[in-house]
Amino acid sequence: MLSKITDKGYWVSKHYYWQSMMHYLWQSLKYRSFSYFSICNPLIHFGGMLDDEKTQVYQLIDQRYLPVTIPINGIEDIDATQLGSSLGFPFILKPDIGFKGYQVHLIRDQDMLAQIKETLDYTQTWIAQEFIDYSREFSILYHRSPHTDRGVVSSFIEKKYPFVTGDGVTDLKQLITKYKSPFINKNQLFSDYAFRLDSILKEGEQLILHRIGNYSRGSKFYSLQHEIDTQLSSEMDRFHNTTKEIDFFRIDCKADSIDALRQGEYKIIELNGMKAEPLHIYDPEMSFRRNTISIYKHWQYIDDLVAAKRKSMDFKLPSTYEGWQALQHTRRLVP
């Protein structure tokens, strides 16, 4: 815990949470509803704030943007031969309801799948998903008011996976041991790389430790706000036009370059609704003042969208009791 509280991202997360809570409580009073935000994405459970299912969200997206995905309802559905044949190795295994990379696994082979199977909670649904091998991972936050021709890209970042660099002398186990990150699970890495821990990387040679782009798993986020332009915004407008009533979202996607992304050559691995954060606030160069302004604008965008949607549609908001149930369900699934 001590190492986490010395990490800037830990405090950025706290900053976002407490400032967001003030905005949320004020707007809840304003709209006389604790679930007022649900109207932004009416076809997603609670607008994508709590225990929405990924498989539910995927059904609202044009399938050409998505990797091949197979729902898993029980242990009998986790068949290494069948999944390997359908998806190939490696593939991603993750819970249908999850947050911030919790229990997301990159399955490299049948032996690893057999090992992971023993740790899974089969009271919930899991997803096996094709691994997208585009070289870079991005996140884009977007919103669009009803009856407007263009939306707004409010946050754009690149995720950098954790990596070690060889010096021609130090073995891989020592490089992992010395790697500075309060969030990365080094014991899991020792297990993943057990077959080559005594190997020595050449001087300057880099090894990516894993390709799961979450801050809570050791990845770093770098702002690309300066790359937001009409071409990127137009591509997000095109994507939005193919979705079903998702007007506030953040996509986590893979592409080989920013230009490829602008041209629609990407695959979406996650779409988060109202729980989405403006991830550029986690850039190491962002100041407390700039983060405060970014968080304020984020919630102002939500407030403006809610106001516009209330004028344009009739939508029954979930009750406070339903919200409480969803919150408790989320807490049970994601400790």
Number of domains: 3
Distance between the termini: 16 Å
Helix content: 25-40%
Runs with pLDDT <50, length 5+?
A: none
| Overall morphology | globular
Write down how many β-strands occur, each being a DSSP E stretch of 2 or more residues.
11
Could you describe the largest sheet, including whether it forms a barrel?
5 strands, antiparallel
Give the strand order, joined by hyphens, for the main sheet: 9-6-5-10-11
H and E string: HHHEHEEHEEEEHHEEHEHEHH
Percent in strands? 15-25%
In terms of structural class, how would the helical and strand content be classed?
alpha+beta
Explain what you see:
With 335 residues, this protein is an alpha+beta fold. It has three domains: 2-67 and 132-160 and 218-333, no CATH class; 81-130, no CATH class; 163-209, no CATH class. The protein has eleven helices and eleven strands. The protein has helices spanning 2-5, 8-31, 54-58, 80-87, 110-117, 172-178, 186-192, 230-242, 258-262, 288-312, 320-333, and strands spanning 69-72, 91-95, 105-107, 126-130, 136-143, 152-160, 163-165, 206-208, 220-223, 248-255, 267-272. Strands 9-6-5-10-11 form a five-stranded antiparallel beta sheet. β5 (136-143) and β6 form a beta hairpin. α2 (8-31) packs parallel to α10. The longest helix is centred in the last third of the chain and has 25 residues, at 288-312.
